[in-house]
Every structure is written in structure tokens, then in C-alpha cells.
Amino acid sequence: KIAESLKQYGGGSLLLLDVDDFKKVNDVLGHLYGDEFLQNVADAIRSQFRKGDIVGRFGGDEFIMFMPGIQDEEIVKKRARNILDKIRTIEVPELDNIPCSIGIAIANSAKISSKELFAQADGALYYVKQTGKGKYAVYNEDMGIKPRMEKEENN
Length: 155
What we know:
By secondary structure, this protein is of the alpha+beta class. It contains six helices and five strands; from the N terminus they run H-E-H-H-E-E-H-E-H-E-H. Strands 2-3-1-4-5 form a five-stranded mixed beta sheet, sandwiched between helices. Helix 5 (114-131) links the parallel strand 4 and strand 5.
């Protein structure tokens, strides 16, 4: 669906969100609370997107969001800040708030594949996690890293 939207809208923005240290939630509060926490995260994310955006859970504690046609970096960064702020309001008993990290990739044309866009967002997420969790980064080639997906394919 993201590949179709990229072509239809001539670009867009992909965000990957990872719940930092989610294992701590399950270890301290149990898996039932962990599931409830992830549902609260999903609700917080959904509240920040338009009806036509693509939002879903991607793996255990990761979420994927795609905004078709949105290529303005400032709009995307504001959305990422809003998501992080909203998630910070989720109360977690016995623990400090659980931060999240977001990797962002922006396609300014339909020439980029959804696979490449995902790899860029994943690379930005990896960058955030390596440089301090609980924030976001927009992928750019100056980060000094290649997306993990490319590294895995070349090994």
C-alpha cells in the first residue's frame, strides 16, 4: 500500500517508531500491562494522523506511519514531536515514562522505492538509538551510516 501511495502522490514521508526499553515494561509490570501500554501508544500515534495516512504496528514494539504526499520536513518533524509528546503523557506505574525513538525518511518524488524509503527511515531510527534515545531524526546521507537493510544485504 505504501508503494502505491508513493506513486499516486509523487512522494511522502515514512516514520518508524520504536518503544525504547520496552522489555523493562514487560519485566516489571508483566505482559498484560505491556500489551495495554502498546495499545495506548497505538492510540496516541493514531490521534496524530489523517484518515488517509497509513498507520500500523510493525513488529513487537515498532510502529510504521506513512503520510502520502507530505514532503515538507518541518511538517514531518512537528508530527514526530507531537507523537513523542503525546506518548510521554502515558503513565507507566513503577517506572519513569518510557521514551520512544522515531526515524524519518522523506521521498520527494515517486522515483524512490518503498523498500529504499523504509531502509532510510530504519537507518535514521538506528542513528537515533545510537546517539541517544527518546528523540527523532530525519534520514540524510551525512549521518555517516547506511541503512541497516543495506548493510545486511551486503554482508
